[in-house]
Amino acid sequence: MSAPLNGHRARKRFGQNFLQDPGIIRRIVKSIGPTASDHLVEIGPGMGAITELLLDSDARLDAVELDRDLIPGLRVKFFNHPNFQVHEADALKFDFSSLQEAGEKLRIVGNLPYNISTPLIFHLLGFEGLIEDMHFMLQKEVVERLAAEPGSGQWGRLSVMAQYFCSIDNLFLVPPECFHPRPKVDSAIVRLTPKPAAERESVDLEVFSRLVRQAFAQRRKTLRNNLKGILDSEHLLSLGIDPQRRPETLKLEEFVQLAKLQEDLAS
C-alpha cells in the first residue's frame, strides 16, 4: 500500500490516484475554462487539487465524493467558498439532475477511477439535456476507445454509444509520475460535448443500445452471427450491409440504421 499523502492513505478499493502535478492541474482547468456563471460538478475531488482552481473562477461547484474520510478535509479547506458543496455519494448511483436549478446545464469534471469510468459515462449519458460538457481524466486506452474511428481496433460499444450522444475531443496525455500513488497506466484528458437532440438521428435508445451491445458481444464474429435473433442476413442486405462484416467496421450511422430497421420490424 502507498505512503500517506497529506495524512490520507490512497485506497485501492476506491481506485484512488491523487493528481499532484501543478502544471497538469493548471492545464486541465485551462481546458475546462470555468466562468463565474457556470455550475460545475466535480466527481471524486480527492484532496481538492483541481477543486481549488475551479473555485477561483467563482463558479458554483458541487463535489460528489465516495470516500467519507476525505469529506471533512474538503469542507475545511473550502469553508470560505459559499458556492461550494460536497455530497457523500456514489457517482454511479447519484441523481445528477437533483443539482440542477432553473433549467441550467451542468459542467461535469472528474479524475475518474479506472474501474468505474465506463459505467459512469453510460450513467451520465442517461441524463438527457442536463449536461453542457464533461472533462474527464481517464485511462489512456479508454479515451482512445471514446474517440476511436470505425475500422480501428479501439472502435466498440463505448465508441458508438458515446459518439451518438457526444462530440469527443482527446485533449492531452497525463503520465503516471503526475499522481500519487503512481498508476501503472498512462492517463489522458478527454472532453465530451453532448449533441443537441435535434442534431442526432432519432432512434429508440433502448433498441439502439441493445443492438450495439449484441453486435459487439463477440468482436471476432460476423454481424450475421452476432445479430442472430434480432436481424437476419436479408435485413442487413436491405440496408446495403454485408452480413459477413465484423461490427468494428460499421459506422455510427449504420448502427442507427440497423436499430431503426429493428424498430420498424417490431411495430
Mean pLDDT: 90
Percent range of helical residues: 25-40%
Major beta sheet, specifics? 7 strands, mixed
- One letter per element, helices H and strands E, the order comes to EHEHEHEEHEHHEEEHHHH
Radius of gyration: 20 Å
User: What's the CATH architecture name of the largest domain?
Assistant: 3-Layer(aba) Sandwich
The CATH topology of the largest domain corresponds to Rossmann fold
Q: Give the overall form.
A: elongated
Provide a quick synopsis of the model.
With 267 residues, this protein is of the alpha/beta class. The chain has helices at residues 22-32, 49-55, 71-77, 117-125, 140-146, 157-165, 205-215, 223-226, 233-238, 252-266; strands spanning 18-19, 39-43, 60-65, 84-88, 106-111, 131-139, 166-174, 179-180, 187-194.
Provide a descriptive summary of the structure in words.
The protein is an alpha/beta fold. It has two domains: 12-199, 3-Layer(aba) Sandwich (Rossmann fold), CATH 3.40.50; 205-266, rRNA adenine dimethylase, C-terminal domain (Helicase, Ruva Protein, domain 3), CATH 1.10.8. Helices cover 32% and strands 19% of the residues. The chain has ten helices and nine strands. It has a seven-stranded mixed beta sheet with strand order 4-3-2-5-6-9-7, with helices on both faces. A two-stranded antiparallel ribbon has the order 1-8. Strand 2, helix 2 and strand 3 form a beta-alpha-beta unit. Helix 1 (22-32) crosses helix 2, helix 4 (117-125) runs parallel beside helix 6 (157-165) and helix 7 (205-215) packs across helix 10. The longest helix is centred in the last third of the chain and has 15 residues, at 252-266. It is elongated and about 65 Å long. The termini are far apart.
